[in-house]
UniProtKB/TrEMBL annotation:
Gene Ontology terms for molecular function: metal ion binding; metallodipeptidase activity
Family affiliation: Belongs to the metallo-dependent hydrolases superfamily. Peptidase M19 family.
GO biological process entries: proteolysis
Protein name: Dipeptidase
Cofactor: Zn(2+)
Keyword Oxidoreductase: no
Short name of any one Pfam family annotated for the protein: Peptidase_M19
Keyword Hydrolase: yes
TM regions (residue ranges): 35-54
Reactions catalysed according to its record: an L-aminoacyl-L-amino acid + H2O = 2 an L-alpha-amino acid
EC numbers, comma separated: 3.4.13.19
Amino acid sequence: MKAAISVPAKPDWPAQEAGNSGPARRTGRGPSPGARAALCLVVLFSLLALYIGLPGRSACPGHRFLSAKPKSIEERVKHILTHTPLIDGHNDLAILIRVLYNNHISNDTFTKPFVEGGLPGQLDLPRLRRGMSGGAFWSVFWPCPENGTNFSSENHLSSVQNTLQQIDLISRLQQSHPDVFSPATLSPAAALAEFRSSRRRLISPLGIEGLHQIGNSAATLRRYHALGVRYATLTHNCGNRYADAALWENPLRKAPHAVWGGLSPEGRRLVREMNRLGMIVDLAHTSVDTMLDVLGKGKHDWPGSEAPVIFSHSSVYAICPHPRNVPDHVLDLVREKRGLVMVNFNPEFVSCVDKGREDGLPEFVPGNSTLQQVARHVLYIGKRIGFDHVGLGSDFDGIQDTPRGLEDVSKFPDLVAELLSQGVSDYDVAKVVGGNLLRVWTEVEAVAERMQKVGEPVLEDDLPGLFF
């Protein structure tokens, strides 16, 4: 992006933050109304600059730009995705490379189709360019242990080794294509600057998918953070020492019972450590009780996460009653916590009906597995809790099938066009595609800075005695 202000003519950014509604009470101290108004303008333009892609300059060029707002939906899509990074909340390229290429990426077998097009799956560089992608949280997923109910450290050690190999894979891929990917370790502001630079590099942090991947060690979590992991999903399709999951594997089914009733005591301590560290708490895959605990409304007398949380790849339970989706009462709490639900494209989470199956899973409805149905999930969240709290988490390369019209990353602009055609404002669409995730990520880092400044103690592992 260059010099033009990139907002629509009538931005509808919230005038007040949650909890600040109502007239301000005058105390005889503080800035005058005029000074407060000027300050509000500065803050507003600063927020817009960070989250919607404005240059941090005078507002004057924006007035000239606003008079030339793009007219057609195609022009509006291009305008939004040029100035606001479309950040996918969950992409599984790494595990696809592990399955198909055994993590060997330094040969033409992988490099040629990745660079020139034709890579199996739903992503390669030409399709990323056609989709006007601005980045992704690249999942360094490793599956649950075969015995998912054994929470011992010994049962999870191989998960740590394999996670490090997946982190190394994405790191090597980024280093092999420095013109494409920005480093995973950048702050949100620095990553946004890379997107806005002439190179337009993809925002590229990492995410782990289940705390089985840390091997019951907060120290391991901190090492992952140092390597660029910026969110941790609390569970995958297995519970762990810290939290209950929505699903169990072998065979896949709704979790038949809770182990902890949400978070365990260690889980509550680990969530606080994630807050202190600046790692986003991801509630995708978790049980409803775990969601409620983290959002501060669980059975325990605990206020929940200090920082906003995300669902990196989950959809709406009211539309598709799958245990992996988010029920309405949890959506309402996401708004209270300034969090974010990023809609998953997995057809089984997009289009389904409850038929009372023994495994607790709904029946997939192929006829509604469409781009329009995905947009319906986005619209539902936006209308219920506000467009400040919805994003996109495709699960591309982690799903075999896709909704019609969303076959791969090149189709993202078509989804943006559908949202615009459904009446979502350009400003709200910009928040959905990336602005909201940047906001949450920035707020998570601000909470970490505050906690560290006041001396929040580091969560240290309880280790066995060592004798020589």
